[in-house]
């Protein structure tokens, strides 16, 4: 165990001695490099710089690269650019139980600020799924460093490739009757005081976005009301769309149905905004409570939005328990397990069950990239908009 790093520290404050910085690592390439990296830290930072404009991706990539580099130095006493295939197998076993815990795991599994002396790279053992995700990201790191001419080879490329299994049928979604219970709970919320009216309006609008738009919680956080726009179809009819920046930095057009636009205008009027957003508007899709809107507003974080949704499900579950229904306990328990992503699954399931063309469901949810040619087929977009408008409703 190397004495140069008794306590792991964040990668941005890491300083390595010459024997651990990887300037002469055993896996270093000898040819021309495509990046100006003199050592492993420089190389990893160059890799991370590619995704710096995507907060979520950057933080996930940094976390995995940071953990491996710290482990390599503190546990093995060798630089990242000297790791072998066998080392990476040992690292994956380490992820399942990071020991010694006092060195690697934050006390009580708490998350501390990166500048806090109590910060640690882990909050506990990683699940099998999290281990796989970590190795996928590290494989991308090593592959990129090979392509950049920094490493001679990718030690993870020798790993056994498991055959892909068919994905299981979606089960984490709300049946229509249970979805109806959630809507009924929202409509039962008190509205006597100004703050209560804001809470009701926010709950109703957030569920509308997640369900009618099929949006991910992260997409609600990063996109704005200025991403709504209107264009005319071939017959001269005006149709509204939401231009969504989604997972993997991919954009997709979500049909802003007549019902979705009615809810948007309702929500905006309740908060004292013009009914329709302007093209350059930076107003967050979901507004914080009690804030005046005469100054720039920071959007709610994914965690905050998730808390709002979980609170709605918990309230609906409690309302079910107080009813006389014989199966209330099982249904209430299902609601308590639900998360914001269940609404996206519910949207997809309800659209498919409502006989909306599966290709249109795919495009609405952004499950697959459209081909270059389809960018010019506005008639297909218009048909998708029309059918989504007719067959996919929230019906408050």
Automatic annotation (TrEMBL):
It is found in: Cytoplasm. It holds the Pfam family Phage_integrase. InterPro entries: CB (IPR044068), DNA_brk_join_enz (IPR011010), Integrase-like_cat_sf (IPR013762), Integrase_catalytic (IPR002104), Integrase_recombinase_N (IPR010998), Tyrosine_recombinase_XerCD (IPR050090). GO terms for biological process: cell division; chromosome segregation; DNA integration; DNA recombination. It comes from the Bacteria. Residues 169-389 form the Tyr recombinase domain. Gene3D superfamilies: 1.10.150.130, Intergrase catalytic core. GO terms for molecular function: DNA binding. Residues 38-146 form the Core-binding (CB) domain. GO terms for cellular component: cytoplasm. This is Tyrosine-type recombinase/integrase. It comes from Paraburkholderia acidisoli. The lineage of its organism: Bacteria, Pseudomonadati, Pseudomonadota, Betaproteobacteria, Burkholderiales.
């Amino acid at each position: 165990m190397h004495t140069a790093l008794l306590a792991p520290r964040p990668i941005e404050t890491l300083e390595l001695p010459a024997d651990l910085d990887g300037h002469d690592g055993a896996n270093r390439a000898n040819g021309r490099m495509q990046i100006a990296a003199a050592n492993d830290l420089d190389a990893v930072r160059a890799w991370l710089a590619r995704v710096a404009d995507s907060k979520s991706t950057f933080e996930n990539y940094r976390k995995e690269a940071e953990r491996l580099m710290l482990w390599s130095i503190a546990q093995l006493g060798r630089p990242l650019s000297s790791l072998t295939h066998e080392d990476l197998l040992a690292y994956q076993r380490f992820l399942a139980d990071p020991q010694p815990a006092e060195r690697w795991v934050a006390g009580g599994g708490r998350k501390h600020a990166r500048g806090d002396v109590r910060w640690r790279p882990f909050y506990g053992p990683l699940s099998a799924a999290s281990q796989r995700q970590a190795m996928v990201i590290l494989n991308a790191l090593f592959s990129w460093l090979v392509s950049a001419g920094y490493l001679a080879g990718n030690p993870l490329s020798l790993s056994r490739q498991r055959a892909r299994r068919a994905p299981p049928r979606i089960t984490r979604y709300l049946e229509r009757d249970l979805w109806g219970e959630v809507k009924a709970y929202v409509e039962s919320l008190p509205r006597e005081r100004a703050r209560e009216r804001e809470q009701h309006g926010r709950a109703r609008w957030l569920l509308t976005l997640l369900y009618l738009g099929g949006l991910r919680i992260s997409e609600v956080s990063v996109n704005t009301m200025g991403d709504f726009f209107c264009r005319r179809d071939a017959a001269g009819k005006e149709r509204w769309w939401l231009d969504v920046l989604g997972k993997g930095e991919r954009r997709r057009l979500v049909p802003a149905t007549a019902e979705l636009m009615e809810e948007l205008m309702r929500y905006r009027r309740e908060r004292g905004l013009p009914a329709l957003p302007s093209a350059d508007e930076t107003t967050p899709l979901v507004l914080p409570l009690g804030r005046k809107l005469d100054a720039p507003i920071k959007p709610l974080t994914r965690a905050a939005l998730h808390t709002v949704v979980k609170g709605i499900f918990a309230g609906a579950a409690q309302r079910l328990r107080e009813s006389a229904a014989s199966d209330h306990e099982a249904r209430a328990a299902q609601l308590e397990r639900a998360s914001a992503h269940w609404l996206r699954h519910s949207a997809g399931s309800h659209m498919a069950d409502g006989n909306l063309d599966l290709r249109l469901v795919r495009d609405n949810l952004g499950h697959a990239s459209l081909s270059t040619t389809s960018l010019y087929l506005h008639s297909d977009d218009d048909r998708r908009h029309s059918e989504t408008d007719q067959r996919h409703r929230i019906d408050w």
